[in-house]
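My current task is to audit a protein record that another person submitted. I need someone to confirm that the token line plausibly describes how this chain folds. Take the sequence as given and treat only the tokens as open to question. This is what I was given:
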Amino acid sequence: MRPDNEALIIIDVQNDFCPGGALAVPGGDEIIPDINALSEDFSAVILTQDWHPANHRSFASQHSGKAPFETVEMPYGTQVLWPDHCVQGSQGARFHPGLNTNRADLIIRKGFRREIDSYSAFFENDRLTPTGLEGYLKTRGIDTLVLVGLATDFCVNYSAVDAARLGFAVTVREDLCRGIDMDGSLSAARRAMTQAGVRMI
């Protein structure tokens, strides 16, 4: 068992990000058995869950003439427009049935504010509005994090970089993540995480 100051953060292992889902990450379901096994080693396990209202501004369907994976400028910067996904209460927003959620101490829902997307487990995409996860971890005396899940180049990347910026020791298990790799986003994410001091294994 890992020491009590370490936590496993499982990012967005939801139906819509797995094969057959609205925003499927290739091989997204392959990592689930090994994530379940790894979670048994941790006394602290946190899950994140994308949780969008049906009219979320990051959905291409909310922008006339725009298609998924195009971009628009939002008040907080450039936003990729996504297919409708992980809509609150939908089957797609549920955790993949193969994921053992019983080990979770906390579920952080993100992306529930209509006007702003949220990739990171720690902040909305304005990089200012907190989710509360930092405070939860620090009050539990947790200073070391292992991140796994979906997708490497978006939610895992943003979460890892923010965690390192907040002073946590961060490891990303690349073998237990899968990426979208849109226009070189995977290599860019690896660079960003490495530069932030994230350990990639």
